User: Fold this.
Amino acid sequence: MLRKTVLTEEKREYFKNALSQMLDAVLSDTGKDARSIAYFRGDSGDLTDRASLDIDKNVNFRIRERESRLIQKIKDALIRVENGTFGICEECGSKIPEKRLRVRPIATLCIRCKEEEEGAKGINARRSA
Ligand SMILES: [Zn+2]
Assistant:
């Protein structure tokens, strides 16, 4: 049996299930808007009487964009479960605490790297004199 992963078989199953469920939830949510999005992306020939609908579609489109990013993250996480890199910080290569993964299975960074990343984005307003 291959043992390149930091996860036990049991935990692999656990996270695979958690991620699959997450993916299903996002996908079924997204499905509700699928038709209007298809329309929005498609031939927009007669929009004059649909001006107000367009606003909804724009909102839907943005939600959908965010969802598709999430879907991608979940899929990436599933791949990592498969190839055994799940639970390893992308930044420093150390293990991401399981507690964190259970709360957020799509996490790719350990807490320290995550905080550094957020710091770099200016979320932590650090005062340096
Ligand atoms: Zn790290």
